[in-house]
Amino acid sequence: MRQPVADTLGLLPWADHAEAAQRTLYTQFWNPSQQIMNQASPCGAPCNDPYVYWWHAHTLDVLIDGLLRTGDARYTQLIGEAFEGARALNGGTLLHNWYDDMQWMALALLRAHEATGEERYLNGVQELWADIQGGWNEHCGGGIAWKKDQLDYKNTPANAPAAILAARLYGLLGDGADLDWARRIYAWNKAHLVDPETGFVWDGMNRLGDGQLEDGWHFTYNQGAYLGAGLALFEVTGEETYLQDALRTAEAAQTRLLDASSGLFPHEGDGDGGLFKGILVRYLALLAQAVNRPALVRVLRHNAEALWQAGRDPDSGLMGLSWNEQPRGRVSLSGQQSGVMLLEAVATLERQGLLS
Q1: Rounded to an integer, what distance in angstroms lies between the CA atom of residue 112 and that of residue 96?
Q2: Residue 223 and residue 202: Cα distance in Å, rounded?
Q3: Would you say the C-alpha torsion 276, 324, 1, 88 has a positive or negative sign?
Q4: Residue 303 needs a FRET pair 20 to 30 A away by CA distance; which of 177, 221, 242, 348 works?
Q5: How many CB atoms neighbour CB 306 within 10 A?
Q6: Which pTM does this prediction carry?
């Protein structure tokens, strides 16, 4: 991976900041013996046990961001190594107990196929997609289950990414069955887990087998995944309703989740929560590229400026879970990758001339 030049906010483009963040990810987290990113830095034992499959799907996504920005063959090599390492640590298979985790992996592999042209990634997508479809059942009126050993619990994390995947597969391969799946999954998610008054997305229902709605969990990644599904369906159908849904949820997410004083997206804990707002900013940035929304671009840039100026240790390059506070002690891969996603997203907006 090429060495970034020295970086100072305001003097060099966001592409250099994104490259510096990628360099930190590699130097602080890459494990050459296992061919994965360690799940914490410093690692120590047992930072990769238990192995958190879905974090490594987002490793692939982040590396693909770097490849698309630079065209550097080193990223292509790392994507291949990280793919094989992730599969090996998952017992030599891409299949998994959690349907949502497999969806994130399939989305990353689909992007890897489109970025590199390598068929092994598309083969992985098709294997995963066939298994994911088996998660649909009629508990709660439809929807894909969260995991194979709890088929009656339905949530946004196991449905919105599946709708994105099905829509993108239709866009690539033209199989009408995939579009039917995308529409059906999205319609179920919208009918059951989206506030009809605001467009804010709820997490799940029937988690405890009592039919109750989990409307008290206000997570950034639910908003990102659902608006991403609306955007993906709009892009392959041209139907304005999907775009308006995405815009409405984006507005609700900002209204509900941005801190009123700092203008930043929230700290949602370490572990899995560290990845949540990275997913939101990825799909907000895609929405900002699809429509003219200068206010949304300003929100993303403001969060990136806070992260670069206050949330990143300038010596180590490690980033905090709060984007205006430097990390203290051990840093999780999940939180670090969210920071890289944000910087790559703003670098993309910069490259497309959308930063104001």
Answers
A1: 20
A2: 8
A3: negative
A4: 242
A5: 20
A6: 0.96
Cβ neighbours of residue 162 closer than 8 Å, sequence gap 6 or more:
99, 103, 132, 144, 181, 185
Integer Cα distance of 84 and 118 in angstroms: 13
Encode 337-351 in three state secondary structure.
HHHHHHHHHHHHHHH
| Nearest by Cα to 233 from 277, 196, 179 | 179
Kindly report, residue by residue over 17-76, the tens digit of the pLDDT: 999 999 999 999 999 999 999 999 999 878 999 999 999 999 999 999 999 999 999 999
Torsion of CA 28, 110, 118, 285, to 10 degrees: -60
What does DSSP assign to residue 262? T
Q: In angstroms, rounded to a whole number, what is the distance separating the alpha carbons of residues 277 and 42? A: 23
Those residues whose C-beta lies under 8 Å from the C-beta of residue 181, and which sit 6 or more positions away, are 133, 162, 163, 166
Angstrom distance (rounded) from CA 125 to CA 214: 30
Start-end of H helices in the chain: 14-29, 53-70, 73-89, 99-116, 119-133, 160-173, 176-193, 220-237, 240-257, 273-290, 294-310, 333-351
**How many C-beta neighbours within 10 Å does residue 33 have?**
6
Structural contact between residues 70 and 2, judged by C-beta atoms closer than 8 angstroms: yes
DSSP 218-245: --HHHHHHHHHHHHHHHHHH--HHHHHH
The tokens 């997206």 sit on which residue? 265
One-letter amino acid for residue 27 of the chain: T
Which residues lie closer than 8 Å to 298 by C-beta, 6 or more apart? 356
pLDDT, tens digit, for every residue of 161-219?
A: 999 999 999 999 999 999 999 999 999 999 999 999 999 999 999 999 999 999 889 99
- Greatest distance between any 2 Cα atoms in the chain: 56
C-alpha distances out from residue 25 to 39, 88, 141, 280, Å? 11, 21, 42, 20
Instruction: Specify whether the CB–CB gap between 299 and 306 falls below 8 A.
Output: no
